[in-house]
Amino acid sequence: MGDEKNSEKDFEKEKKKKIEKEPEKQTKKAPKPKKRKKKGKAGFLFILLILLAVIGAGVYLLIPSKNRVSHNQYFGLEDDNQYGLIVNSEIVDITNGAPFEENGVWYLPFSTLYYEISDAFYYDGLALLYTDPLQTYSAAPGESFYTDSDGIKYTLTYQPCYFKDGSLCIALDYLKLMDYSYYTVDDTMKSIWVFNDWSEQPRASLLKDTKARTQAGIKNDIVASLATDDVVTVLEQGASWSRVQTQTGLVGYVQNKMLGEIKEEAKAVPDGRPLPKYTNIAMDEMVVMGWHQVFSESGYSQLDDIISTAKGMNVICPTWFTIKDNDGNIQNLGEKKYVTKAHKAGLRYGLCLMILIFQQMASGFWNNFTQENIDYSCD
Fold this sequence. Notes:
It is a single chain. This protein has helices at 2-29, 32-62, 71-75, 110-117, 172-179, 303-309, 336-344, and strands at residues 84-87, 90-91, 100-102, 105-109, 121-123, 128-131, 136-139, 145-147, 153-155, 161-164, 167-171, 182-186, 191-195, 200-205, 210-213, 222-226, 231-237, 241-245, 251-255, 263-266, 289-292, 315-318, 321-323, 330-332, 348-357, 360-361, 364-365, 370-378. The protein has 379 residues and is an alpha+beta fold. The protein folds into 3 domains: 72-186, no CATH class; 202-264, SH3 type barrels, CATH 2.30.30.40; 289-378, no CATH class. The strands form 8 sheets. Strands 21, 22, 23, 24, 25 and 28 form a 6-stranded mixed beta sheet that branches. The longest helix has 31 residues, at 32-62. The chain is elongated. 21% of the residues are buried.
């Protein structure tokens, strides 16, 4: 009996110990919610960092770039001292020769002038020639004057043209004087702008100070700083940005909201000189021209046959004139009755010069010749 009582007591003690240990187990499991709390806080910080990054990127996109494009990048040049060339609204390839300054005067190689600006000048081996509606002007390389067809001499403070390293170079001031091709020099951007387009173009005044940029968008590099009321030529209009040309010739993009009213306006000649007027004879209908090879005075008798076979022809061009010798003498086979008959048939006629050029070598004449037809006028 005594042993049974002791066993019951021991059982009760063990049971009591187990009950007392249970709260301890529960208290050991309590930190689990704290772990969840830490994970939630880390997730919040991660989301906050993403939001800050997005906001920062948005702010960056709204801040305009302050970088200025270099003249090398803008013109595609490698030489820092070389000036770029703009003709009207186009950047010109200066592989034929770059503009340069000599004794305070800007010059351009003749090849660049001829191919990129004006083909009205001609060098005959002795002098640079230019013809306007009234006169032909002549300037000898290295001289500080030029003369007109009447022999009148005009003195200048610079040389209109001279040879440099074997190449003929033309003063931009002489180009302006003869050809009405004006120019401006931008030393900041190292550029020269030559302009001779006096037609009406869309222009606008700026409503605020702004920047012209290399492309549409505020993150692109700056081409030029523009001020309120500056007048720009609108070359191309886009949805939000327009391509414009500044008053120094540089081309870039500005926001449309910076442009005032766009109007069609012609650029005024800077010094007020009247532009030369070149007269010509024009036809309201399409010209259908026929060439009539005439080598003798019998050409008149062939006209009827030509008219009867050349249907739709409205202009005939007989080869009446030929340079017959090295002295420049011209042979003329023209006949008034030929012109009268052509007019009666409803035809106009063009005068044609046939040039036969023979090149004489030390060993004799070449067997081949060059033939060139030049149409002078229509009557």
